[in-house]
Amino acid sequence: MSQTIRDMERQALQLSREDRAHLADRLLSSLALDPSVEDAWAIEVDRRITEFESGSVLDVPVEDALARARAAIR
């Protein structure tokens, strides 16, 4: 890793949580090959957030989700 990258990483880690999330989103978006895929994921994320906030779906503790996934692949 170059010194420039290490310097940018150090600076980025000093940003607020919100700014780091925004930066991470922008960097990840820049790697996308097909903008329509990113758009579709954004729509899906919004749909899931709306369902969760409305109470029409329930959250599952991560431990339970992982246990179910592990059981499914055995």
What is the number of helices? 4
Task: Tell me the strand percentage band.
Answer: under 5%
Radius of gyration, in Å, reads 18 Å
Residue runs with pLDDT of under 50 for 5 or more positions? none
Structural class: mainly alpha
Distance between the termini: 39 Å
Helix content: over 70%
Quick synopsis:
By secondary structure, the protein is mainly α. It has helices at residues 3-13, 17-31, 35-54, 62-72.
Which short descriptors sum up this protein?
4 helices, mainly alpha, 74 residues, extended
Describe the 3D structure:
The structure is a single chain. The protein is mainly alpha-helical and 74 residues long. The protein is built from four helices and no strands. The longest helix is centred in the middle third of the chain and has 20 residues, at 35-54.
